[in-house]
Write a structure and sequence with these properties.
By secondary structure, the chain is mostly beta strands. It is 4% helix and 42% strand.
Length: 166
């Protein structure tokens, strides 16, 4: 996989490139601001964190959708070009044995952009976790060029998560 560093740019008025829509709603931040100390050590390239504010997840583009890890807490969207967006939900979900996770789409199938895939019951999960964060990692088989994101609140299936300049 080829990696670049995320460039945090607040003003997107003149920014051009390939837009990856946000699959979730919440507050975007650098991974160095994640509440877990492990993630603050800059060990995951091309990764940002989002404090979730709403629980529905959508396919960001036409993709092969898959899940992995314990209780399917890793969601992977792979575009035919090889571009991949991976979402990692909190490790504490494994202790809940899937409670609070309601699947809206079966894994291991091709899905269209905008397809709802998962509904998290955030009020239930927030009883167990004060904040529910999701990691988002963008990767590709070839160098991505520049990867932009911004520290902002995003709406699922509407706002940009990343802008790629290939």
């Amino acid at each position: 996989m080829a990696y670049s560093e995320i460039i945090w740019q607040q003003d997107w008025t003149k920014l051009q490139g390939f837009v990856i829509k946000s699959p979730f709603s919440g507050q975007l931040m650098p991974i160095s601001s994640h509440p877990y100390l492990l993630y603050r050590q800059d060990i995951l390239p091309n990764t940002l964190s989002c404090k979730l504010e709403q629980g529905t997840f959508y396919a960001p583009f036409n993709a092969q959708f898959a899940t992995s890890r314990d209780v399917d807490r890793r969601l992977t969207f792979k575009h035919p070009s090889g571009l991949t967006l991976t979402l990692d939900l909190p490790i504490e979900l494994r202790d809940l044995h899937g409670k609070g996770m309601h699947w809206l789409c079966r894994a291991n199938q091709h899905i269209a952009a905008g397809t709802p895939v998962l509904q998290l019951d955030l009020p239930f999960l927030q009883i167990q976790l004060p904040e529910v964060h999701c990691l988002a990692t963008i990767s590709a088989p070839k160098p991505l060029g520049k990867i932009y994101s911004r520290k902002a609140r995003v709406n699922a299936n509407e706002d940009a998560l990343f802008v790629l300049q290939l």
